[in-house]
Amino acid sequence: MVGIGPLIPSIFLDDDTFRADKIEISSKNDMDWLKSKDKGSFIYLSFSSYSKISSQLMEEIGHELLKCGRPFLWAIREGQGGEKMEDKLSCKDELENQGKIVNWCSQVKVLKHPSIGCFLTHYGWNSTLESIASEVPIVACPLWNDKVHNAKLIHDISKNGVRTNASEGGVVERDEFNRCIMIAMGSGEEGEELRRSAKNWSDLAKEDMKENGTSSMNLKTFANEFLLGHNDY
Predict the structure, then answer these.
(1) Please, what CATH class does the domain formed by 39-207 belong to?
(2) Backbone dihedral angles phi then psi of residue 140, each to the nearest 5 degrees
(3) Secondary structure tally for the chain: helices H, strands E
(4) Could you tell me the pLDDT band of residue 21, with boundaries at 50, 70 and 90?
């Protein structure tokens, strides 16, 4: 087995030739909103296009966002039949005065925007790699399967993220979300260490993606072995 990630467009790894704050995300309104925010000030939240979170967990996240008072961009996919899941939030009106709730956005472009401060995610592997490549500290809320292992990797080994802990009832509560976000976006020692680690791993990811980097060489090796193996038949 060889590692060939992160599998994201290489243009997003080159800060000198491409500025993610100069492209559209999903609409001009979204772009204008992000441009109006200070550097490192907003929270991006997404649990992927395929994961469905419970109404209780959404409610806890919503109240945490109100408590912390920071601007946010929250991608909540539509339910079956186009149902707007955010309509179930008891605090939806207050949230929309503070941030933006969208059904979809280009995650890589959002993660590369200079206004982002942290990424609250379910810790899917694609989201994890995109965060690493984009130099964004992560707040992890792993839901199932490999996400738990991904969260442990980021929290305990690479140390560029902080993991939420569920209550005895199995739900991550608003105060726990607040604790983790305050660490990731705060000016304390833990927050500074997260950002240093995020930059370090981002630099390593960029080197891996360059010509003759580890990822590039592994992909070439795999392709050569695959083609040579088939040429024998």
Answers:
(1) alpha beta
(2) -100, 135
(3) 9, 6
(4) very low
Supply the pLDDT for residue 80: 74
How far is it, in rounded angstroms, from Cα 128 to Cα 102? 21
Exposure string of 45-68, with b = 16+ CB inside 10 Å and e = fewer, is bbbbeeeebeeebbbbbbbbbeeb
CB-based contact 37:115 (threshold 8 Å): yes
The strand pairing partners of 42, in sequence order, are: 116
The first and second tokens of residue 195, run together, are 């950002």
- Domain borders along the chain are 39-207
Residue found under tokens 């919503």: 62
Residue 193's pLDDT is 94
Q: Where are the alpha helices (DSSP H) in the chain?
A: 28-35, 55-68, 92-98, 107-111, 125-134, 146-152, 174-185, 189-209, 214-231
Q: What is the pLDDT of residues 27-76, one digit of tens each?
A: 667 778 888 999 999 999 998 666 678 889 999 999 999 999 999 999 99
| Residue 61 near residue 164 (C-beta atoms within 8 A) | no
pLDDT in tens, 206-215: 888 787 888 8
What is the number of residues in the chain? 233
Distances (CA, A) of 32 to 22, 40, 217, 221: 10, 16, 40, 44
The vertex-79 CA angle with 107 and 27, nearest 5°, equals 40
